[in-house]
Amino acid sequence: MIRQSDLRNEITSYEALKKRTEDTLELLEMAEESMMEELTGEVASIEAEIDHLELNTLLSGKYDRGNALLAIHAGAGGTDSQDWAAMLERMYLRWTERRGYKADILDRTEGEEAGLKSVTIAVTGPLAYGYLRPEKGVHRLVRLSPFDAAHRRHTSFALVEVLPEMIETDEINVPAEDLKIDVYKSSGAGGQNVQKNATAVRLTHIPTGLVVTCQNERSQVQNRANALRVLKARLLEMKQEAQAEKLSELRGEYTKAEWGSQIRSYVLHPYQLVKDHRTDFEMGDTSAVLDGEIDPFIEAYLRKTD
Cα–Cα distance between 274 and 287 in angstroms, integer? Predict the structure, then answer.
């Protein structure tokens, strides 16, 4: 039913664009000079829509059309990196707003002084995983630190994970006997309890040792369900990585991804530039990028790799 709905929406979009194009061509044939400016704008709008639909055809992976789980983890760099993780959280939340996606924060651990240590966000909407997939990797920030009394330049790192959200019919099954479930009180910055009841949930997958926590909902049942969503997504990623590694070994080549191999650098000092190291695409308007304008980077990656 989900696939049927996606296809229906896709066909509707193509048919609507075809009708717009035909109507515009008819108007152009009989248009007077006074109408040309308006029709030129319509042609530009149609071209933009065609580019958008063309980009969608590059999202042909098994999970590209589904929802995504986005996780951000502060890296080395102390308070600066935790603040950087919070900046990335804001950037992606602004991006989801631009896209019309729904974003639900499943788990969030605050930093000691500022920012956050980690956050997990469920992003719901058509092609959410396909568009977020290029964001996976280490993001590097260079700026004058607001937390340094000498106001020196600091380099901070944060890791962005993007996982496909599992649906009940998918191939990952987690038997109850493979889970260890702990409940505890949700806590905010500094360890202060924000809930009197034990609603936070920690799931431990015994065979792999994977640990997932969720504490943002007020219900223990909801937190447990969300934690299971994240656990299934992480197990799927492990399965895919194992398959990819085995294939690479058969081919005689395997390169391990290290923490320091950043995919993108955001430089705020001594100059302003955001550059993706995989595609060499760059933008000088760092404020716009940090305000959620990351589609040009995503598009450049998809066009280069897919």
Answer: 10
